[in-house]
Amino acid sequence: MEILAALEFPSIDNLVKWPGTFNKIAFIDVVAVVATFLLFWLGARKKSLVPRGIQNLAESSLDFINKGIIDQTIGHGGEPYIPYIATIFFFVFFGNIFEVIPGFAMPANARMANPAFMGILTLVFFVAVGVKHHGLKYFTGVMFPPGVPKPLYALVTPIEVLSTFIVRPFSLAVRLFANMLAGHILLVTFAVLTIALIEGGILAIISPLPFVMLVGLTGFEIMVSFLQAYVFAILAAVYIGGALHPEH
Amino acid sequence: MAQSANIFVFLELAATGETQEQETHTGSGAATVGEAVSAQETQAVEAKPDNPILPTGLELIYGGASFLVLWALMKFVLTKPILKIMQDRADKVRGDLDAADRARASAEEAIAQYNAALASAKAEATRLIEDARAQGEAKRRELMAAAEADVAAMRAAAAQEVAQAKAAALAELRGEVATIAVDAAKAVIGKDLDLAAQRPIVDDYLSRSGSLN
Lengths: 248, 213
Prior knowledge:
The structure holds 2 protein chains of 2 kinds.
Chain A: H1 24-43, H2 53-73, H3 82-97, H4 113-134, H5 137-143, H6 153-198, H7 208-244
Chain B: H1 2-14, E1 24-26, E2 29-31, H2 33-42, H3 57-189, H4 195-212
């Protein structure tokens, strides 16, 4: 059954014996930081006129963040937010992609800590942007959106406050967490089903079916890893843009 | 099946990597995850991990610190040089495009100047050709006129010479004819005739016959 080893989800101590409270999630967090650092640090070393290799990847990534996310959401004046949005994108993406990396097979964002932290930090960030550019009028703008008949404020204001300061970070965090956890459970389910069928005597004949599904879902989860990073980053940018240009 | 069942339990309890910290509640008391997995092989285990939804404090600290470190790196170290490279490249491309536009405008101006000079040269050449042609024509006419004058003069001189020769020949011929006629008449009449006396008659005849011609 050597071949089945490839389908097993290894023990948390399979690779290393984690010291103290430092666990696999923490390790993935550190790897995400190091991988992102290496990508941009190595990408900035050559400074050639025609970018190639890792410089091209680093520049394309920032260009994607800038033009694909920030220009589309924040628009003019969004350049200062490139580092934050890029940090979100790459931290989420590297945290997600470990879902399909053998030996890890666990997305860091399938735990609530990272999504919750980034959701709350994004709330603090866009509120800070709003206060910085509009002062306390930012809060009145959120609570009393213009163009609404005054009697309706009794209904609209609680909804807006709840939506902006509670639902936004909550939905950011839960969307990422739930998607990654669901994908993780799907992969685990089909991996375990494949093993169970192979070990199940005559039922082994249908074991290729969940295995093919497992392979397909692995590709799907790679896409989801990217997509969730993109969604988190673009929503954070939308919220920052809304705080920066509330009239839009 | 035992192995796959173990994996289920393991995933429920240990997917986060906190197997060492989390405790499971079994019928006989707390046990580590490893013990829970072992126990599951022999009897059912009621696994009750911590709430998987709520974040644990340590993960929050590790994740938050990692994120903040990465954010600081991105803000102060990583993105600036790359954005500067991209901005420099954009500036260079923009500058090159401007230079290309200027070069194109300069080339178009040079072409316009060249075309103007070419048109001017063509006009000058046409004018020169026309002048040369006019001068040639005038010269030709002048030469033709001179030649015709020469020809006319030569023709007049030749005519005069012919007339003079004709007159001389006629005068000589008249003298000869008078002599011959008088000689002939002498032979016919058998008597001598005075040539000088007869000459007026002969001349008169010749004059009349000549006027008839």
